[in-house]
């Protein structure tokens, strides 16, 4: 009489064990998927930061074949093209991102950035015009300022630069751009002031230092400004100031500055030596 009962118990036990096994398998599979998701995310972050940009392009191109609809992978590829300075390829990549159903206004700003880098200024202007005015970000206004500059719309450019400066905690780069805009307009004193502000925000920004010297040279101020600089930078800035003096017709001053640049540089300063020889031969 016990055998049927034992058989029923055994069947029930086997069924329970099978259910437990199925549950365990599902849990393991979910865990593996979660780990893979984390690994993919970390790898994507690496490819967008410290990895070689062209390696990033290859990685996102491969991944996109398996996940063609994932907008994060599409963005990663577009960003990698920009990092690799492959701007012609970056434009269609960003265009594809903007057509995704989950795209944002930031994606369109990044498209405009890629278009400017690729020399497509009119396309970039149209892209920015299609973004709602309520989308107010530092990058959007910086690009708007650059486009206004290219169109010689000086008042608009100044307004956009001023807004952009107020939307970032690291305004050195945009101040340098604003200063260069003033330099091209011939407003040398204001350009010098803006370059000084950029250097105060980031005293490692050599481009702003060089631009500041150009602004001073255009005003016939042939002394270096009081700003942080290492010996090599001092020599290079003296060279820039010398060329500015020569361009203004102040040849004697230019020669003296070239000699000072050569003496200041810790190594052989070929560019300054060549310029001085050319002047002396003339």
TrEMBL record:
<dbReference type="InterPro" id="IPR011990">
    <property type="entry name" value="TPR-like_helical_dom_sf"/>
</dbReference>
<keyword id="KW-0732">Signal</keyword>
<feature type="signal peptide">
    <location>
        <begin position="1"/>
        <end position="21"/>
    </location>
</feature>
<dbReference type="Pfam" id="PF13432">
    <property type="entry name" value="TPR_16"/>
</dbReference>
<dbReference type="Pfam" id="PF14559">
    <property type="entry name" value="TPR_19"/>
</dbReference>
<protein>
    <submittedName>
        <fullName>Tetratricopeptide repeat-containing protein</fullName>
    </submittedName>
</protein>
<dbReference type="InterPro" id="IPR019734">
    <property type="entry name" value="TPR_rpt"/>
</dbReference>
């Amino acid at each position: 009489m016990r055998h049927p009962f034992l058989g029923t118990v055994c069947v029930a036990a086997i069924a329970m064990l099978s259910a437990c096994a199925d549950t365990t398998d599902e849990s393991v599979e979910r865990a593996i998927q979660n780990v893979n998701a984390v690994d993919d995310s970390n790898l994507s972050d690496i490819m967008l930061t410290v990895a070689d940009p062209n390696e990033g392009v290859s990685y996102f191109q491969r991944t996109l074949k398996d996940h063609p609809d994932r907008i994060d992978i599409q963005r990663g590829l577009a960003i990698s093209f920009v990092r690799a300075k492959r701007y012609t390829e970056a434009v269609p990549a960003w265009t594809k991102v903007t057509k995704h159903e989950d795209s944002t206004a930031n994606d369109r700003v990044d498209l405009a950035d890629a278009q400017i880098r690729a020399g497509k200024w009119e396309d970039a202007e149209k892209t920015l015009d299609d973004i709602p005015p309520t989308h107010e970000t530092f990058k959007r206004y910086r690009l708007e300022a650059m486009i206004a500059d290219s169109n010689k719309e000086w008042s608009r450019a100044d307004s956009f630069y001023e807004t952009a400066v107020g939307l970032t905690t690291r305004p050195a780069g945009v101040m340098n751009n604003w200063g260069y805009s003033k330099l091209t307009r011939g407003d040398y004193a204001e350009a010098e002031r803006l370059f000084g502000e950029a250097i105060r925000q980031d005293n490692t920004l050599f481009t702003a230092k060089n631009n500041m010297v150009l602004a001073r040279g255009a005003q016939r101020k042939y002394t270096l400004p009081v700003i942080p600089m290492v010996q090599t930078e001092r020599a290079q800035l003296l060279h820039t100031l010398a060329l500015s003096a020569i361009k203004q017709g102040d040849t004697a001053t230019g020669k003296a500055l070239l000699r000072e640049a050569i003496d200041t540089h810790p190594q052989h300063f070929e560019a300054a030596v060549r310029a001085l020889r050319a002047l002396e031969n003339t």
